[in-house]
Amino acid sequence: MTLSFPPGFLWGAAAAAYQIEGAAQEDGRTPSIWDTFSHTPGKVLGGDTGDVAVDHYHRFREDIRLMADLNLAAYRFSVSWSRVQPTGRGPAVQRGLDFYRGLVDELLSAGIQPVLTLYHWDLPQELENTGGWPERETAERYAEYAGIVAEALGDRVEYWTTLNEPWCSAFLGYGSGVHAPGRTERLAPLRAAHHLNLAHGLGAQALRAALPARAQIAISLNPAVVRPLTQDPADLDAQRRIDALANRVFSGPLLRGAYPSDLIEDTAAITDWSFVRDGDLAVIKHPLDALGINYYTPSLVSAATDNGARAARHDGHGASAHSPWPGSERVAFHQTPGDRTEMGWTVDPTGLHELLMRYTREAPGVPLYITENGAAYDDKPDADGQVHDPERIEYLRAHLATAHRAIADGADLRGYFLWSLMDNFEWAYGYSKRFGAVYVDYPTQARVPKSSARWYAEVARTGELPEA
Known about the structure:
Elements: E1 3-4, E2 10-14, H1 17-20, H2 33-38, H3 56-69, E3 74-78, H4 81-84, H5 94-109, E4 113-117, H6 125-129, H7 136-153, E5 159-164, H8 166-176, H9 187-210, E6 216-221, E7 226-228, H10 233-256, H11 261-266, H12 280-284, E8 290-294, E9 299-302, H13 308-312, E10 332-334, H14 350-362, E11 368-372, H15 390-408, E12 413-419, E13 438-441, E14 446-449, H16 451-462, E15 464-465
Helix pairs in contact: 3-5, 7-9, 8-9, 9-10, 14-15, 15-16
């Protein structure tokens, strides 16, 4: 049976500045924390960096022609803070803004809606040098940056996202250290989470002040689908603990204006949360026009065990000697059953339905977008230079069918963004993992649409999901 999506459903693909742009030292850009991290020996697989990436900075017109060929109605991209405001302070570099002006103009000329993310993990290194996200000043600097970009592009961009996956910025960047800036602390991730929340609120205020009334302001979260190994009370408590750290640390203040009391109790040995100041929560609970949901795979947890601390380091977010779960380090993580992608992540579309229905309940009246969903596979060209990826097609088909079911069940889901448009720099995995619908031959930078790209192009053209 063919499934039809609602008229006006937004079909798109996504990418992030550091993963694709390259041109790391051009036109006034200065290092971000990911430049520093990737140039630190041992931090990124193979010593890979984003110095060149897929050279989108110079090839964006070619890439937009590809997007048009794939019938994309929208392109979700991020702005490099270091390219626009190199030190994280002071006036903008117009050459940096000009790149994004040109990108947006080209998208609009091609009939593609620009969907702009202000922050996708690439903090200017100078702000990290003064403490980074654990410090309140970083949130204040972010609001200034948001205003700069809004003033430059607000007349042409309707869809704005403040932050992408702040959980990763806080807990992988400052807890387990598998992401930039690579710090391994217990208090810093909690402080960072709050100041990222505050940055969202302050940034949303700055956007509202600068943007036309039609602009839509959102945040993209990567909420975890946390399932207990058994129904034993101890396993259910482990589920509660991880849900608090993965999900409610953001949804609590964003949607209800309060941090969960159980999260505060779970982390009482680490902090009294005195870094939350009067008025912060009201700022964070800024009305959302939309909520972005990023989903890849569920998590399976059980009660603390003797080897729980070790198990927590293998929770799907990269191996580390340090846990990204402050106060709940001994919760054990288990591999969920089923087929796996090249990331080792289980393919389970039921988790997407669970998230869409959860946020339908928790954020009533707020439209939802799937702002990232996709899979990495070991894609290789055949003898004719074509790239066939039937596993990705099946992954996308299953998740889109689940999204359609969520709409039927009452979710106000407005769009879907495939992660990702092209193969690119996959953070700590370097160029070893390919998420793209378009294959990139890194030595030549040649782009080759995979079979999944052609399949997705037809879905985007018709708004219909064909039978398997």
